[in-house]
Design a protein that fits this description.
Layout lengths: L12 E2 L7 E2 L4 E2 L13 E2 L4 E2 L11 E2 L3 E2 L8 E2 L4 E4 L2 E7 L18 E4 L7 E4 L4 E2 L11 E2 L3 E7 L5 E5 L4 E2 L9 E2 L4 E2 L8 E2 L3 E3 L5 E3 L4 E2 L9 E2 L19 E3 L10 E3 L4 E2 L9 E2 L4 E3 L6 E3 L4 E6 L4 E5 L5 E2 L10 E2 L4 E2 L9 E2 L4 E3 L10 E3 L3 E3 L6 E3 L4 E2 L9 E2 L4 E2 L11 E2 L3 E5 L12 E4 L4 E2 L9 E2 L14
Antiparallel strand pairs: 1-2, 3-4, 5-6, 7-8, 9-10, 11-12, 13-14, 15-16, 17-18, 19-20, 21-22, 23-24, 25-26, 27-28, 29-30, 31-32, 33-34, 35-36, 37-38, 39-40, 41-42, 43-44, 45-46, 47-48
């Protein structure tokens, strides 16, 4: 509270002449000093806006929490249930914590393998977990990332504070997610790196109980085989119940009994039979087709074998989502997020696309080209796929900038400048200091004109030079 002048009541205050004066309350303002009507009170802010005490202009009336807009005389719009308005930018509704938005779509939770990150500027981000890691949907923290199938946790943490994971070695596997160690494959089984499960080694076949058993005499099976042991060359499989004399896989029995000849028919097109001595054939799972000998199933083009069913030796086929790709050379049983600087906007096994020149992505698993941000010293010059060098006299120290910042007064920069330190004093000027008194920013140079009798004809923080004897110069002289 303060004493009011005799004839005038100041802005943001109200009261009688001579005092006492009182600050306008929260939610009100007074924009003019009052001499004719010093007792005039404060005006209430427009609907859905608020202001601090002592406000002296309607522009101090900002949209309330849950409402967004410029405030003042302009209307405020109510945010949706999954949105909020945030400081210091109450002019737009942002997704609430834990939610993200792509383009103009509704707010949604992060997908599997990603976690929520609040960058304080945009509508938050979903960051992909590191290599060989995954996370459940709607994850809120990097702490939700865990080692995926076929990978185990190693000692230490990465630069982001998250765990680190490594692929399981050859001959080991891990069929769970988390920090558990990789287990050695059972007898007669093998695995490549990053394996979720083990496969039967060459010369063995998997039984109904899940074990891999060595093939019997006169029979063999290839490595990674999902079919039964087959008779060797020159050995026939007649329909009797003796080793390598039984009806073959890929056919089924329609008559006969133990010790008596049986009639075996081939499985019809589209069906298979892995085991011997069966009375029916089976259908493959979705996205798979029967192999040539009708003893198993193989994945269609665009799909990979993510697992096998040991009961009937069918194969479960999967494909990669957007932002993921598959590496068939490593016999992996899952998809890998696109690496930094790449993206993939279609599902399937194809490799990720490279970001345009001079741009990169913020994290792993980018699903759109719009996630490729221009490098520092570049800016989006009107086309999404093009990054343009900052013009001479400007700089940009941010990834994804849509424009460049002018160099401070009396300074200039080369094309593609990254930081304000790349702005040097013009010819005829010299660098007096690197501290700007008004801001305290010690990275902005202060350039002054060369004193009389001095000159400087190059750009940069080089010192000025004396004019030759019996010559003189005016201030800011560039040449002799």
């Amino acid at each position: 509270m303060s004493v009011c002048l005799y004839k005038t009541v100041n802005k943001g205050l109200f009261g009688p002449p001579g005092g006492p004066c009182t600050r306008c309350e929260v939610g009100t303002y007074k924009s003019e000093s009052t001499s004719q009507s010093p007792n005039a009170g404060c005006t209430t802010c427009p609907v859905n806006t608020n202001s601090p005490t002592g406000s002296y202009t309607i522009l101090n009336c900002k949209c309330k929490a849950g409402w967004a807009g410029p405030g003042g005389n302009d209307a405020c719009n109510e945010c949706d249930d999954d949105e909020k308005s945030i400081f210091p930018d109450p002019t737009a509704c942002k997704c609430k914590d834990g939610l993200v938005r792509s383009d103009h779509s509704p707010c949604e939770t992060c997908d599997i393998g990603k976690y929520w990150y609040n960058d304080g500027i945009y509508d938050n981000l979903c960051i992909a977990c590191a290599m060989y890691q995954t996370a459940p949907p709607n994850s809120w923290s990097i702490a939700d990332c865990m080692c995926d199938f076929g990978a185990t946790q190693t000692q230490g943490f990465d630069l982001s504070g998250g765990i680190t994971c490594a692929k399981c070695d050859v001959g080991t596997y891990k069929d769970t997610q988390g920090s558990a160690q990789c287990d050695a494959c059972p007898t007669n089984e093998f695995s490549s790196t990053s394996s979720k499960d083990c496969l039967c080694a060459a010369g063995s076949s998997r039984q109904l109980d899940g074990r891999c058993i060595l093939c019997k005499e006169n029979s063999d099976a290839p490595q990674e085989s999902v079919g039964a042991c087959a008779c060797n060359a020159g050995i026939k499989a007649p329909a009797v119940t003796r080793p390598c004399e039984m009806f073959e896989a890929g056919s089924y029995e329609i008559g006969g009994f133990t010790g008596v000849h049986a009639v075996c028919n081939d499985c019809v097109a589209g069906k298979y039979q892995y085991y011997m001595e069966r009375t029916a054939c089976s259908d493959c799972f979705a996205n798979a087709e029967v192999t040539a000998h009708r003893t198993g199933c193989s994945c269609n083009t665009g799909y990979f074998a993510s697992s096998h069913t040991f009961e009937d030796f069918s194969v479960v086929c999967s494909t990669c989502l957007v932002g993921e790709y598959y590496i068939p050379q490593q016999s992996m049983t899952w998809c890998t997020p696109c690496e930094l600087g790449t993206y993939k906007n279609q599902s399937g096994l194809a490799a990720c696309d490279q970001c345009p020149a001079h741009s990169t992505t913020y994290g792993l698993g980018a699903a759109e080209q719009s996630e490729c941000l221009c490098d520092a010293g570049q800016f989006h010059g009107g086309k999404l796929e093009m990054c343009t060098l900052c013009q001479a006299g400007k700089f940009s120290n941010l990834d994804g900038a849509t424009g460049c910042t002018e160099c401070p007064g009396n300074t200039h920069s080369l094309q593609g400048a990254l930081v304000v330190d790349d702005c040097f004093c013009n010819p005829g000027m010299f660098q007096l200091s690197t501290t700007l008194a008004e801001t305290g920013d010690d990275s902005i140079p202060i350039c002054e004109h060369c004193p009389a009798g001095k000159f400087k004809f190059v750009q940069g923080d080089f010192p000025y030079m004396d004019c030759p004897i019996n010559t003189d110069s005016n201030m800011s002289n560039v040449n002799l």
